[in-house]
Design a protein that fits this description.
Elements: H1 2-9, H2 25-83, H3 97-128, E1 179-182, E2 193-196, E3 242-246, H4 253-258, E4 262-271, E5 277-284, H5 290-300, E6 306-307, E7 313-314, E8 316-325
Parallel strand pairs: 3-8
Antiparallel strand pairs: 1-2, 4-5, 4-8, 6-7
Length: 326
Amino acid sequence: MNGSAARSDDPATAHPGGAQEDPLRAVRRLGQRASRDGIYVGLIIALLSHFSAYAAPEYTLWQMRNVVDKMHGQLHDFFVVAYDVEVLDEEEPPVEEEEALAEDDEAEVEEEEVVEDEDEKVEQTQEEYVPDQTEPDQTDDAEEDDSPYPDEEAPPDTAEAPDVLTAPESGPVDLTERFTFTDKDGSKSTGGGLTSGKGKAKKPVRNPNARSGGKGRRTSKGKGKGRRKRRGRGVNRSRGLGGSYRASCPFPPQADLHQVDKATVVLSVTVAPSGRVTNASVISDPGYGFGAAARRCVLAQPFPPALDEDGNPIAKTGTLNYRFTR
């Protein structure tokens, strides 16, 4: 009892206010600070975790957008180079409506001014014009014109028939000195018609353009031009152009994008005797870039030429099917 009283009476252990100091005061103070710091740390961790959970998908979407834009640009450049796309020039901006309306108003004002000027001129001419009141000279010899159309000219008189020309009478014509009519004895029809009186030939003339009594013989032999027709059963070695061919070039990018694995293009091609394609045009195009790809491949690929009857290669135009399969 005395020891406890001595400790309580010791001024070193006594509270300045006279009350005894709590020995667990520091422990309680430490617990309050720890709880407050724990709340702050928890809030910071929650904010960081939520921000990371939101930023991760956003960053992924941003990366995907960059990749898609890059692929789009590369595909655009590839299509421009592969298909010779002509970039159209930018069109000039259209005229603004206000300027067009202003021009219309100015045109209407000018038209109104022109109409007013014309009306004024007409009024002035009407005022200045004074009709001539002098009476025209009347002559007794002048005939009154009762025609309803005085300005029109009168129709011309009918023409008279011309005099008939007649040839003078003449005697019969004597043709015995120049021509004679020949006929066989006892014949009921004419023999040769007109015959020259001065002819000396003893044989009848068969050529209507030949002269009577001409002499001569054929001196030349004609030679015809052309190919002699072949007789017999020969072998016909002719061969046409056409058929179906498998494509030897890669699929177009549009087909890869839409996963098209089979297509057929119909083309009209002209093949030279050397086997080189000189012209190609697409007749039937299934789309997805197959028509342009087939035309490029055909122009770069040799084909067997067509043959004539003798088996010689000739240039010919035909239709063929170009198949894409994979």
